[in-house]
Amino acid sequence: MAVTDGGAGAGLPAALGGTALFPEGLPLTRVQVPDRAELDRRLDGILTSGQLTNGDTVRELEEAAAEFLDVPHVVAVSNCTSGLMLALQAFGVAGHRVVMPSFTFSATAHAAHWAGGRPVFAEVNEHNVTLDPADAAAALAHSEAAGGVKALMATHVYGTPCDVEELQKTADDYGVPLLYDAAHAFGSRRNGQPIGGFGSAEVFSLSPTKVVVAAEGGLVATRDAALAEQIRLGRGYGNPGDYDCVFPGLNARMSELHAALALVSLRSLPERIAHRGAMVAAFAERVAGLPGLALPRLAEGDSSTWKDLTLIIDPDEFGCGTEALGAALKAEGIDSRRYFYPAVHLQKAYAEWAGERALPVTEKMADRVLTVPLWSHMDEATVLRIADAVVRIQGHADRI
Ligand SMILES: *Cc1c(COP(=O)(O)O)cnc(C)c1O
């Protein structure tokens, strides 16, 4: 056994009659409420001014985010989904195919659908479940032959940067814009460079399970001034100001109140990400050598927000599958989620298109992932106890 020193991992799993490691229960996420004094001051200022939308706070957030991400343009929107929809509308995907991973959150595909596009799914790699550039190229070729393709989308899953150089080459080969669903990746870096400046645009989510939080909100980052302008127009109905709308836009504005929360949340982001990374490193050290367990692998020089702490489980080597592991963790009091399962192409909403391309790797990986609790103020004792739970379950996996 990996743990023989009498540590917490040495006992019998709770699923087999041992004492639960978290009898009080452990949720998957806990939102850290930022600096309340500054937030209260900002909210008070906004409420007193009466300017609840289209005001200075959203502009201040856009400027602060642009500086953090080192991109010229950031447009704040109501959420990541609406940001993706507006970008795809600007790319003219209506009536055309959009290539994207199936191993992603459903909103990636929903955005293409709402923009009038048709999702075509491509595979992810096995080492960090981000879009596989070779299969993306195959899906683009397929889509081109099948009637036309207008965009390539990729997701920085769990905060792990995609292979942005290969994906850009692939997009360029087919002459399509590359749009990143960067919902998890505000603060991730590719070879030192912030996620936010890659592809034609990158769209972040500020919903409560993400790393920067506005309650609800999104940010579109781009180097393309014309695209930024179109998304700015699109978030306000497509109305340039004279009520003579130039295209059918959305109401996808972020309110001043949400922007205030995001600004305060952004301030402490570097420390939060550093702490998350340290907790993941402590976890990785404690489970090192356990058979059949891997964490998403970062490329040399890359860094992740570790939006999620997700285990990749090889059921044959580990001794049981993710469903059994999740149930055994539940017995310890630990919440977990099979995130992302089922893959998008296997969801009811996309049944019509499920058979367009075979996705064996995606289906295998969706079966192998299990996300365990992590939050920005989790202490090391807690993360090590989660690791101990995994270790002792694995030690008895044949009976789990
Ligand atoms: C959360 C999430 C979204 C949706 O973000 P919203 O801000 O809730 O619209 C999109 N893509 C991924 C990968 C997500 O995790």
UniProtKB/TrEMBL annotation:
Native organism: Yinghuangia soli
Active site: K210 (proton acceptor)
Name this polypeptide is given: DegT/DnrJ/EryC1/StrS family aminotransferase
Modified residues (N6-(pyridoxal phosphate)lysine): K210
Family: Belongs to the DegT/DnrJ/EryC1 family.
Molecular function terms from GO: pyridoxal phosphate binding; transaminase activity
InterPro entries recorded: DegT/StrS_aminotransferase, PyrdxlP-dep_Trfase, PyrdxlP-dep_Trfase_major, PyrdxlP-dep_Trfase_small
Signal peptide: none
Protein's GO biological process: polysaccharide biosynthetic process
Cross-referenced Pfam families: DegT_DnrJ_EryC1
Organism domain of life: Bacteria
UniProt keyword annotations, A-Z: Aminotransferase, Pyridoxal phosphate, Transferase
